[in-house]
Amino acid sequence: QVQVVESGGGSVQPGGSLTLACVVSGFTFDDYAIGWFRQAPAKEREGVSCLSNTDASTHYADSVKGRFTISRDNGKNTVYLQMNNLKPEDTAVYYCAAKPGDYLILVSDMYNYWGQGTQVTVSS
Questions:
Q1: Rounded to whole angstroms, what are the CA distances from 108 to 14, 87, 122?
Q2: What is the mean pLDDT of the chain?
Q3: CA distances from 45 to 33, 52, 109 (A)
Q4: N or C end: fewer C-beta atoms under 10 angstroms in the chain?
Q5: Which one has a higher pLDDT value, 93 or 28?
Q6: Are 122 and 109 in contact (CB under 8 A)?
Q7: pLDDT tens for residues 49-64?
């Protein structure tokens, strides 16, 4: 049974930090690239960052470059998204997703497995 479970969301003030975690099971973690997506109210889902399963290469949306860092711990089947200097426009539900192979692309249709999401709210 495939499971993708996000955690770590919450409410923070602008400039604050959060670390999201994504724990996966039910498939071979090492064979999948992992991506983070987000969806704000009344907006389309957008790609935030993704990480290769082979060479640790990464890709970030321009809106989060320099503020967010993605990493993975293969021993724990876990991917993290460290989010610093958060802004109100980062407010959204954040989703973790997995796609087979190591080609990095932030297109949601390419991802097979999805979590239920975790809410991040940035507000003063």
A1: 28, 23, 24
A2: 95
A3: 18, 21, 11
A4: N
A5: 93
A6: no
A7: 999 988 789 999 999 9
